[in-house]
Design brief:
There is one protein chain. This protein is α/β, with parallel strands linked by helices. Helix 1 packs across helix 6.
């Protein structure tokens, strides 16, 4: 049984909704164990015992969210050189861009020597005013379906040994 670890942080619900959609998609594969954890709950043991990773974060002030960064800070050296080659992908919930947060995750994944299994997803909510940025987020059905499809593809690929 392979384990897909989905780690997320969410302030206004968008990233959480996306992470849950990935987990729903992965659940379509009977031979996969999906572990969905908030970044505060995840630790190095979770990372070491997983076969693949999905990192989901909002972009905050052009960067990944602080609690997601905290997860990487707490686990980076504890798993370094022990997870080389494992597959990952990243999803970012952004108001307008998302590339700053994505670049940070990709740099960390490069340091961990992870293999990107699929192109990252950036879901843009177009929140530009302080009120819109702080408001609860609704992710459109097409974006949620892409998240589900990604989870299903990742799970199937793990089970088939494609990565």
């Amino acid at each position: 049984m392979k384990t897909l670890l989905i780690i997320y942080h969410s302030t206004t619900g968008g990233s959480k909704t996306m992470a849950h959609a990935v987990a729903e998609g992965a659940a379509t594969e009977a031979e996969i164990r999906t572990l969905l954890l908030h970044a505060c709950e995840a630790n190095a043991e979770h990372v070491l015992h997983a076969d693949g990773y999905v990192f989901v974060t909002p972009e905050t002030l052009g960067s990944m969210a602080g609690l997601m960064k905290d997860f990487f800070d707490r686990t980076y050296y504890a798993v370094l050189d022990q997870i080389n080659g494992r597959p990952y992908t990243a999803l970012v919930c952004a108001g307008s861009d998302g590339h700053g947060a994505l670049k940070q995750i990709q740099r960390i994944a490069t340091g961990w020597r992870l293999s990107e299994m699929a192109a990252p997803e950036i879901v843009c909510t177009h929140a530009q005013t302080p009120e819109d940025i702080l408001a609860p987020k609704t992710i459109n059905p097409e974006d949620l379906q892409r998240c589900r499809d990604l989870g299903a593809a990742f799970a199937s690929g793990l089970v088939m040994g494609l990565f």
